[in-house]
Amino acid sequence: xxxxxxxxxxxxxxxxxxxxxxxxxxxxxxxxxxxxxxxxxxxxxxxxxxxxxxxxxxxxxxxxxxxxxxxxxxxxxxxxxxxxxxxxxxxxxxxxxxxxxxxxxxxxxxxxxxxxxxxxxxxxxxxxxxxxxxxxxxxxxxxxxxxxxxxxxxxxxxxxxxxxxxxxxxxxxxxxxxxxxxxxxxxxxxxxxxxxxxxxxxxxxxxxxxxxxxxxxxxxxxxxxxxxxxxxxxxxxxxxxxxxxxxxxxxxxxxxxxxxxxxxxxxxxxxxxxxxxxxxxxxxxxxxxxxxxxxxxxx
Length: 299
Ligand SMILES: NC(=O)c1ccc[n+]([C@@H]2O[C@H](COP(=O)([O-])OP(=O)(O)OC[C@H]3O[C@@H](n4cnc5c(N)ncnc54)[C@H](O)[C@@H]3O)[C@@H](O)[C@H]2O)c1
Hints:
Layout: H1 2-14, E1 23-27, H2 29-41, E2 48-52, H3 55-61, E3 66-71, E4 74-81, E5 86-87, H4 99-116, H5 118-134, H6 141-157, H7 177-184, H8 190-207, H9 213-225, H10 237-250, E6 257-260, E7 266-269, H11 274-293
Parallel strand pairs: 1-2, 2-5
Antiparallel strand pairs: 3-4, 6-7
Helix pairs in contact: 1-2, 2-3, 3-4, 4-5, 4-6, 4-8, 5-6, 7-8, 7-10, 8-9, 8-11
The structure holds nicotinamide-adenine-dinucleotide (NAD).
């Protein structure tokens, strides 16, 4: 909130004209979330334009209507719905972005692929590593992947901008990750925490027979190829249980947990229990230890 107040101070000292001069927010997802929140509060609502400069910004934080800041131990506990009047998506900004932040954004793209777009998953299998290496500057593949990811995100967000419907496919990867990300601070980037969550729920889906073992292997291997983590020491029963309880409160008393159904589609479940979670986390820990040792062929 201190950053939000700073932005409000600058809007005051600039003497912004409320209706005619939108604030232009140029930066990563943190910046557009903070400036968006300041704008939604400033004189009850001031227009703003977003110019995301990170991959997460281009495919996710710059696409929806949500603003927010963390509060207490919780991710985005304070926030608003305040759509930008315009958003400029320009991948040229990515040329200066660190490799780890490209991987971070690839995790959110992988989310769209896993839960609703099998063709995007195939593109990531073919070109994902290249995109990571080139900072998304590979001609053809870069535009195709960005286009599909943004389009898929918009398809899901646009009809439900104010989230009246709580079964949201784009919540995939965001059931356990908010708690894990906050408790692991500053170790895991947002997309990395999302990836760990997706790895866990892929294993849950595999054990339920929703995802085949060959498909699960492909998913986990793609995560590794994109240099994303598939496991974290916080994936233990106490943290996972508390994370799920917080998510249930956030989703109005039900789990409404998106799980992949094959690659490129999803289902919602309400009946995940602690034992099933602990089993899946244990399996994943063993799998990632195997991979680190150089074997890992047992999905
Ligand atoms: N509002 C939403 O709907 C939404 C959706 C997804 C994520 N988010 C939020 O976005 C945040 C993550 O965003 P992020 O990954 O952009 O992180 P970030 O904003 O922290 O940016 C990452 C780093 O890259 C730097 N940077 C930005 N643009 C750069 C460029 N072009 N070249 C070099 N460096 C650059 C930033 O200064 C920062 O150090 C999370 O807090 C997440 O909650 C919000």
